[in-house]
Amino acid sequence: MRYKKYVIVILKKLGTAITDLVPIIVVVVFFQSVVIRQPFPQIGEVIFGILLVIVGLMLFVAGLEMGLFPIGEEMAYALAKKGSLLWLIIFSFALGFSTTIAEPALIAVAKEASIISSDAGLIENSEKVMGLYAMGLRLTVAFSVGLAIVIGVLRILKGWPLYYLIIGGYILVMLMTIIAPDEIIGLAYDAGGVTTSTITVPLVAALGVGLATAIKGRSPLTDGFGLIAFASLLPIIFVMAYGLFWF
Amino acid sequence: MAVMINYFTDFVLVLFYTLRDVLPILILIIFFQLVVLKQPIPHLKRVILGGVYVVLGLALFLMGLEKALFPVGEIMAVQLSDPVFIGVSEGEQIMWWDYYWIYIFAAFIGFSTTIAEPSLIAVALKAGEVSVGTIKPLGLRITVAIGVAFALAVGTFRIVTGTPLFIYILVGYLIVIIQTIFTPKKFIAIAYDSGGVTTSTVTVPIVAALGLGLSSAVPGRNPAIDGFGLIAFASLFPIITVLGYAQFMDLKTRFQK
Asked: Per the structure, how many domains does chain A have?
């Protein structure tokens, strides 16, 4: 009897995962068969890949609800109850910094950027300088994400309105754009988007909501969200500053 | 048989990379629980099982993407920007509207990949839970996906025309600021967050491939300079659509009163 319950839960999750992927499949099939009208490349591999994606998505969502969300919120509660601002700030910074420095998308983008910059003659074309440049870029982005989470957490504690900070950030981005070298601008704008990884996001969201729930007078809805917004804004500003420093 | 072994080694490799990504977070959590909070982790068994599911799920997901969707997306971007497909003969000037299939494709691929984006699913679930039903997770995801669809259509247009990136971003920021003034406060934080979460595991690689493929296919574009910017658009436009949706819902309830 117990197994029957599990089977129903699994089937339900499987169903959601499949519906999540239906749009992609429809788009690809439509463009291949109606617009491009060429034989489908490696159909067998594609179908196998889609099956993997469905099972993967199903497991991910199940794990999210069982593991990442509860642990993130529990830790936010415990840290708020402990009442040590210093530890809370250290935790927030470490969460942002450590998850970003290892982010594969960022590593790839930093390497690409060092090649582009040396091709454009902005930095010396030697392996050492390019490596330094790429590492510096990763450190800059990771530092800015750590700082962003700290600012976001302070905002929740103090109850500052989010939009003042975000609009202030936008103005800073625009001012930096005027003085930053042209070659770094596109990269800087994109850097904001690639920093927030799939495992960081649920943890950061749980941290924000957990804190806002634990502190009196804060609403989880208006105050708990907004951490990710900082994490995608601050790297833009810092990467442009990095460009100014190098070129 | 050889294929099976191949897949298996691929999977082990992807699993290893995923574990490496999770390691800093794991160390952080264990350190804080044991050294700072000095507490055992509550529901330890469940949390560990959940963590295993997340890592395993993500590894399978990424491997499936690499096997299936990324190559297809890349091939299609190249096919769609091919002069032969566009139907112009050699030497003839290609105008920006000749690339209309690219814009349509970018919009649809943006919408469909965003619907499947795990980070967005996570935030939408949380938002639904916290707002006690005012925010419907699926509704939020569709609104964000529409934003990404617009973003990629406009972003590919920008690559084809070669117009400067910062002008679009400036206009986008101004729209967000104006909308912020008129949107009910409780939706603002979610809207701002939905910009950052759209560009993750699924969307970034596909979008990057699209940008680089297109900027190398369109004559006169440099992938190094024009290839960037799509991700920036994809993290800005959803803010606008989510704020817009919140305003629309607000107006609707006011009308009904």
From this structure: 2
